[in-house]
Amino acid sequence: MAKTDVLTLAILGILRDRPHHGYQIRKLLGVELGPFRALSYGSLYPCLRRMVEAGLIEASGDEPGNPTPASSRRARIAYSLTEAGRARLTTELANAGASSWDDDAFDVRFSLFAHTDAATRLRILEGRRSRLAERLEEVSEGLKRMHERHDAYTAELQRHGLEQVEREISWLDRLIENERSAPGGDHHGSASADH
């Protein structure tokens, strides 16, 4: 999943329940989706414009050329989902393909788990865990090679990466267990916030 597709999915998720102005979207992305904390307006507004052109969202409010004195040009434009945008979000939420557990997409997909069915959540979590198990093996091998070369700083960086991957695998193991053991198939709210 390309970074722009991930941002599109994140925006669709933010607009799922109600319209927001551009600055509100940016703020919510920062609060809910840590990876987007540094998202600039220079990245956000072109994405919003592409989404409007694609018919996924619509913009309403004051025209950009007629700002009110107390507001910025963009502060008065509210963005909301169209039917096509809702359909795209529904399709994306049902997708548990390999791109959904990639580094760029996983946090966005995870933030939308409350709106994702239990089977899809479990497939994404298991896929992410599998991907990280592969990475753990690679980092472990890299750490062994660093010891052979006696490069203490690179070895320390490798060890740090190893610990991060081990921590995330442990977190995923707990989430997977929660998903598998939740009664009745309604798994909303079963995730812990240990990540």
Report on the structure:
- There is one protein chain.
- Helices cover 61% and strands 6% of the residues.
- It is built from seven helices and three strands.
- It has helices spanning 3-14, 22-32, 41-53, 83-94, 103-111, 118-149, 152-181, and strands at 20-21, 57-61, 77-81.
- A three-stranded antiparallel β-sheet has the order 1-3-2.
Strands, helices and their partners?
Elements: H1 3-14, E1 20-21, H2 22-32, H3 41-53, E2 57-61, E3 77-81, H4 83-94, H5 103-111, H6 118-149, H7 152-181
Antiparallel strand pairs: 1-3, 2-3
Helix pairs in contact: 1-3, 1-5, 6-7
Question: How many beta-strand segments?
Answer: 3
Question: What ranges have pLDDT less than 50 throughout 5 or more consecutive residues?
Answer: 63-71, 186-190
Main sheet properties: 3 strands, antiparallel
Distance between the amino and carboxyl termini = 22 Å
Side by side, the strands of the main sheet go 1-3-2
| Radius of gyration based on Cα positions | 20 Å
CATH-assigned fold name of the largest domain: Arc Repressor Mutant, subunit A
Proportion of helical residues: 55-70%
CATH superfamily of the largest domain: Winged helix-like DNA-binding domain superfamily/Winged helix DNA-binding domain
Secondary-structure arrangement, i.e. CATH architecture of the largest domain = Orthogonal Bundle
What percentage of the residues does DSSP assign to strands (E)? 5-15%
The outline comes out as globular
Q: Which structural category do the helix and sheet elements fall into?
A: mainly alpha
Q: Class of the largest domain, according to the CATH hierarchy?
A: Mainly Alpha
| Arithmetic mean of pLDDT | 83
**Total count of domains:** 2
